[in-house]
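REQUEST FORM: STRUCTURE PREDICTION
Request ID: SP-0412
Submitted by: Lab K.M.
Chain count: 1
Length (residues): 111
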Amino acid sequence: RRPPRSTPKPSSAASDVYKRQNVNTTLKYLKSKNFWVSGFDSEAKKDFTNHNWKGNNILLFGSEGYGLNYQIKKNSDFLFRININEKVDSLNISNSASVVFHYLSTIKEKS
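STATUS: Completed
RESULT:
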């Protein structure tokens, strides 16, 4: 017999979140702990570069072509779009995240 696999133990700060099973339940919990939930969706109206990125932020990215599901949008404090060339329908998640993370790291360096 093989010994049972060990499961990773989260840090105590993350243990409450780790125990949550549902993404939307987790988002509600984190919002109660002073986190801002920002969703990125191609149909959103607000450009993410025109936002004050202070405080604790959770970034959620929708899938290419489908975006974020309704419940995630509903539980987001902000919905943002990434301005892209009109000839491009959408970005895949890795490209979207790269654009946003690069921008956020640039503004943090300036402050």
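NOTES: Confidence is low (pLDDT under 50) at residues 6-13.
Reviewed by: T.R.
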